[in-house]
Design brief:
With 305 residues, the chain is α+β, with helices and mostly antiparallel strands. The chain is 27% helix and 27% strand. Bound molecules: pyridoxal-5'-phosphate.
Length: 305
């Protein structure tokens, strides 16, 4: 693809396919059921004000990949929101295993297998407003199939910003309305992900992914001070290959990069083919291929790195 070729919108349908494939099983408190039978209270603070945190993990061979890191981040997010988590790691691991097993046993999931797990913790039943009720939080665990992404993807930069000085910067909260709006805009423009800068113009992250760019031959990613989420895939890639974490990258570094990629628990290392409809020189480029190979090798050898 050359620099002026328009974006193919092929991967935009990924989200639609994902929601219409197989049956997600959901455990709310101790009740495990197919998604359409799983319910939380109408006055749950997660429902009324988005007071909650979550984790999405890839499921590999029936096991949640890097679950230890995900549970640690869940606890960091809980601390940021001052949410008490009354469950031990063992209890959470057991809830995850049970939900994955239920999804894996559902014949509707036979074609794709179980590919993703989500843990959500909300503030629990609360008053109608931002004050939290004096109740236990709600735990929701969901597992189901995941549709593989196309080999490369298109991204769109958007003008909305990530607030690096937000009270919840760096926490993985369920208040994702800003991401919903930005992602819909990316889809309108034929891309599978929207890329945001922060309030001072530094390249930050996607709505559900971290971003890596090659600048002057060096693989770089926005530092956590830009307000991006400390992605588990990002963290692993930074441990596997040399990466410079920088707070001075801009959207232009992404637009002019010879190669770039996204990382997330569902995308792994996902090469970016086009930015705002303009093709990067190569996808995957050599640095992307190196990171992808190292990550794939890790996943083959260690499920809880
Ligand atoms: C805002 C945001 N950034 C980055 C990521 C990537 O994080 P991880 O690699 O842990 O999936 C996510 C994951 O959903 C996210 O929501």
């Amino acid at each position: 693809m050359n620099r002026n070729q328009p974006v193919a919108a092929a991967d935009v349908g990924h989200t639609v396919a994902m929601s219409s494939t197989g049956t997600t099983w959901v455990r709310v408190a101790d009740h495990l059921a197919p998604a359409e039978q799983a319910t939380v209270g109408a006055l749950d603070h997660g429902v009324t004000v988005g007071d909650g945190i979550f984790e999405t993990c890839k499921v590999v061979d029936g096991t949640a990949f890097a679950l230890g890191r995900h549970l640690r981040r869940l606890r960091r997010s809980a601390a940021t929101l001052a949410l008490d988590l009354p469950w031990s790691d063992d209890a959470l691991r057991e809830a995850c295993a049970e939900t994955i097993a239920a999804a894996a046993g559902d014949p509707a999931n036979a074609p794709l297998g179980v590919g993703r797990l989500r843990l959500t913790v909300t503030g629990g039943a609360g008053p109608l407003g931002s004050d939290r009720g004096a109740v236990d939080p709600t735990l929701i665990v969901a597992a189901g199939p995941s549709v593989p992404w196309p080999a490369t993807t298109a991204v769109a930069t958007v003008a909305w910003t990530r607030n690096e000085r937000s009270a919840v910067a760096g926490a993985k909260t369920t208040s994702y309305a800003e991401n919903v709006v930005a992602l819909a805009e990316a889809h309108r423009r034929g891309a599978s992900e929207a890329i945001l800068a922060n309030t001072i113009g530094a390249l930050c992250e996607g709505t559900g992914s971290n971003v890596f760019v090659v600048v002057d031959g060096e693989l770089c990613t926005p530092s956590l001070t830009t307000g991006c989420l400390a992605g588990i895939t990002r963290e692993l890639v930074c441990e596997l290959v040399p990466v410079a974490e920088r707070d001075d990258l801009t959207l232009d570094h992404l637009r002019t990069a010879p190669e770039a990629f996204l990382t997330s628990s569902t995308r792994d290392v996902h090469p970016i083919a086009t930015v705002d409809g303009v093709a990067l020189a190569v996808a995957p480029g050599p640095r992307t291929a190196e990171a992808a190979a190292a990550f794939a090798a890790l996943e083959r050898t260690e499920l809880d790195p």
